[in-house]
Amino acid sequence: MTFDVVVLKNPKDRFSPAKSKAVRTIRILSFEHHSSDVVSHHIQKVLNKRKLFPTNMASDLLNVAISVFVADHLILRSEYGYYNWGRHIRLHVPVVDPRKWENARDTLERMLSFLTGDKWDIQFRRRKSSQTETKRKKYKLDCVSLFSGGLDSYIGAVDLLQLGHRVTLVGHYGLGAPDGAAQTKLFSGLKSGYSKGTVELLRFYVQPKDSKEKSKRSRSLLFIALGVLVADALGNSTPVYVPENGLISINPPLTTSRLGSLSTRTTHPYFISLLQLALSRLGLDHPIINPYQYRTKGEMIVKCRNRTLVKKNMSTTISCAHPMAKNIRKGLTNPAKHCGYCLPCLIRRAAQHHAGITGDRYFDSNLRVASDPSRPTGRDFRAVRLALTRFTKSGRLDIFQALASGPLPAKNKELTKFAEVYARGIQEVKQFLDSMTN
Questions:
Q1: 63 pLDDT exceeds 50?
Q2: What percent of the chain has pLDDT over 70?
Q3: Helix (H, G, I), strand (E, B) or coil at 359
Q4: What is each CA distance from 194 to 95, 189, 308, 415, 435, in whole angstroms?
Q5: How confident is residue 35, by pLDDT bands cut at 50, 70 and 90?
Q6: Conformation bin of residue 8: beta by default, left when phi > 0, alpha when psi is -120 to 50
Q7: Is the Cβ–Cβ distance between 157 and 309 less than 8 Å?
Q8: Residue pLDDT, tens place only, 86-105
Q9: Could you give the CA distance from residue 401 to residue 410 in angstroms, rounded to a whole number?
Q10: Is the pLDDT of residue 305 over 90?
Q11: Lowest-pLDDT range of 69-73, 206-210, 325-329
């Protein structure tokens, strides 16, 4: 089954794919206009308020990312995916320079397939150039850093500011997401802790309507595309930082059941390398940088350039994969923002243990719920236990385990670094769990 996703140039655009036999056609209005029937956002409002004028190419990239994001949310894998997973989605996107986009099409399709586990076809048609490009100017801020409200992104912002950068933080949030409030609160702390004009926050609300699909692998592309859009408006060569610890970045499947699409690839080096290649072919000169690719989360805390500030505001950051889940459980009340047993929570708790930091509250602080084999909520915890057993038995670096979630750079030195950060990250988790039983 095939789905057509059409980005419309303007409200009067009546484009329809020729001879389409799609199960469903989803129509999205280009972000430069108002929200459409399938997605709500205020992107242009934020840009206008800050007087940011990105190029046509960066705007076209964001339209691609939004169309992917909406399709990922609205097309249910359980109903339409092959073997309840992979879907076939065709994007029809208007762009100013179809020739350049055709040059990047194969790379984009491979990148999307790796990211979401689906088959993607992208078709381009011409649109008129935007007049806002003539208003572009150079800004004093020199870099963009993605700001999710999580601990890694907060450490990334602090380190850049400590190094003397003038940072534009870019946040994305959706309906009812607690990370939006965390972004605002954390930014207030950064603003008061550093000189005026050195840090700014742009928060973009983008929310598909009637969203039902839970996998949502494509958020990272939307997030980075928003970062590139802002970086492009700030000036040529402005870098985009994507702070993420190395273990989560390569995210090797902890068990064989988590191979392939079931292991997320949000900042996987292969995904980032394909995206960087696509940007280069499009003429978007913005390096995508993860400065913590070879650090564990614990090492990020310990080596942070302002550990006092990070420790002070750590409890405001949100790492949990499902921070709202506890509020749904009838009859249970708990002030903790984190479940305590999902994989991001386990890695966060292990990092805090490694850094000698205590005080955060977790819904399942003693892992009693997660330890119960009859509860589905303990899947991540049990997967970690199995991975630790394998790791302990092997007693050596396992490059193939680090490669299990996707290709990594072919140079032996880099492969060894990835294997080492995997080993140290797993060791952090092991030491934390061992401390729970002692």
A1: yes
A2: 85
A3: coil
A4: 40, 9, 14, 37, 37
A5: confident
A6: beta
A7: no
A8: 889 999 999 999 999 999 99
A9: 15
A10: yes
A11: 325-329
Which tokens hold the place of 7? 């980005």
pLDDT of residue 261: 41
The predicted structure's pLDDT at residue 45: 94
| 215: its two tokens | 């996998």
Nearest to 20 by CA among 146, 136, 163, 123: 123
What SS3 class is residue 363?
coil
Q: Which residues contact 42 (CB under 8 A, 6 or more apart)?
A: 35, 204, 205
Q: Are 319 and 150 in contact (CB under 8 A)?
A: yes
CA distance 196 to 45: 24
Q: Where are the domains of the chain?
A: 2-41+51-130, 134-289, 311-437
Alpha-carbon distances of 244 from 130, 154, 247, 313, 369, rounded to whole Å:
34, 10, 9, 18, 28
Mean pLDDT of the chain: 86
Instruction: Give pLDDT tens digits for 315-337.
Output: 999 998 876 554 444 344 455 67
Q: Which two tokens stand for residue 254?
A: 């902890």
Kindly list the distances between the CA atom of residue 236 and the CA atoms of 32, 232, 286, in Å, as whole numbers in the listed order.
21, 6, 7
Tokens of 45: 């409002």
Q: Which pLDDT value is given to residue 48?
A: 92
For the domain spanning 134-289, the CATH number is: 3.40.50.620
**What torsion do the CA atoms of 263, 265, 270, 272 make, to the nearest 10 degrees?**
180
pLDDT of 255 > 70? The answer is no
Sequence-distant (6+) residues with CB within 8 A of 346 are 380, 381, 384, 429, 432, 433
Q: What is the mean pLDDT of residues 6-17?
A: 93
* Separation CA 217–CA 72 (nearest Å): 7
Q: What is the full DSSP assignment across 199-254?
A: EEEEEEEEEETT---S--TTHHHHHHHHHHHHHHHH-TT--EE----HHHHH---S
Residue 40 burial (C-beta neighbours within 10 Å; 0-12, 13-18, 19+):
middle
Structure tokens at 296: 């564990």
- Predicted confidence at residue 205, as pLDDT, reads 94
Q: Is 126 in a helix, a strand, or coil?
A: strand
